[in-house]
Amino acid sequence: MNKKQRVNVSQKRLINCTAVDVNQLMPLKYKWAWEHYLNGCSNHWMPSEVPMAKDIELWKSNQLSDDERRVIMRNLGFFSTAESLVGNNIVLAIFRHVTNPEARQYLLRQAFEEAIHTHAFLYIVESLTLDHGEIFNMYNEISSVNNKDQFEMKLTEEVLNPNFTTATPEGTQKFLENLIGYYIIMEGLFFYSGFAMILSFLRQNKMVGIGEQFQYILRDETVHLNFGIDLINGIKEENPGIWSLEFQAMIVDKIKEAVELEIAYAEDCLPRGILGLSSSMFRDYVQHIADRRFERIGLKAIYRSKNPFPWMSETIDLGKEKNFFETRVTEYQSASNLTWS
Fold first, then answer.
1. Taking Cα atoms as reference points, which of 315, 283, 297 lies closest to residue 214?
2. How many Cβ atoms from other residues are within 10 Å of residue 313's Cβ?
3. How far apart are CA 229 and CA 214, in angstroms?
4. In which band, very low, low, confident or very high, does the pLDDT at 19 lie, cut at 50, 70 and 90?
5. What's the burial of 210, exposed, middle or buried (CB within 10 Å: 0-12/13-18/19+)?
6. Is residue 11 included in any domain, yes or no?
């Protein structure tokens, strides 16, 4: 048997790699991908470990207004399908065209986490004895939800074509557009206003079980977003010709379109103010987030809106030890290595 030459790490590429077997994990080239994988593993949780008794009691009471219930229902309806869309895109579109094993390792982890998130919404729906059909079919029945999902699904159509390839500059651009659509727009923009709405309940000690699960999901999504940004920027660096001014302008227009879709969704969720929230605040918030996403992929901020929810940044930035490890030891693989005060 002839021994093949060992892997030259410099020959590894995120897409269009023909020099290195995609099964050759070591040596690592993209250490950031492996770090994201390890972070995802250390964040492991299961929805059924979160108690829902207080949520059930509050939901069955008359202490929630119709407007508060509307916000919760709209978000359950959006997220329950959106997480599936993301998972399908990873498994059926992205994974096939990423030719680097350490990046694929993270994609497998992320796909599992998307399944966990879908599980969480089913767990919430069943705990509150909600109508499954109403929640899981909302993306077909509520236009503000449907419009966002249709926007995303259009980005997947061409990449799902069996004849699609990233071997051409146009194919690489289309693939990059898909990554930006799902990591920057879906997970980095559409999800965050929903997080702010639900976590506003938690801040007032309402629907605490749902709030805790959204905290876990937010933590996962922060890693998803960071991986996606690293993947996007890595592909840009390895394929400098694709990041043309024309392509950048198209991406800016896509994100601007998504911002308006998200603002329309917030207006639908909040026809009147609740919990100190108003739809006008979400216009500022979505624009503020969009500027941060622009900057992370090398584009200029355009909105310059202030963040009306500074506590969201605090929620994201809080150390895990305070936010998540303090009272929930058993769900982490590394729990035996932690010490408690």
1. 315
2. 12
3. 22
4. low
5. buried
6. no
- CATH (domain of 214): 1.10.620.20
Phi and psi for 277 in degrees, rounded to 5? -110, 150
Distance of alpha carbon 41 from alpha carbon 220, whole angstroms: 10
Per-residue DSSP letter, 242:
G
Residue 40 counted as domain residue: no
94 in any annotated domain: yes
pTM reported for the whole predicted model: 0.89
CB 301 within 8 A of CB 295: yes
CB contact at 8 A, 297 and 180: yes
Active site amino acids: 123
d(Cα 124, Cα 120) in Å, to the nearest integer?
6
Domain assignment of residue 2, yes or no = no
Q: How many domains does the chain have?
A: 1
Residues 6 or more apart whose CB falls under 8 angstroms from that of 37 comprise 102, 105, 106, 109
As a whole number of Å, the end-to-end CA separation of the chain is: 58
N residues, the chain: 341
What is the tens place of the pLDDT at every residue in 199-223? 999 999 999 999 999 999 999 999 9
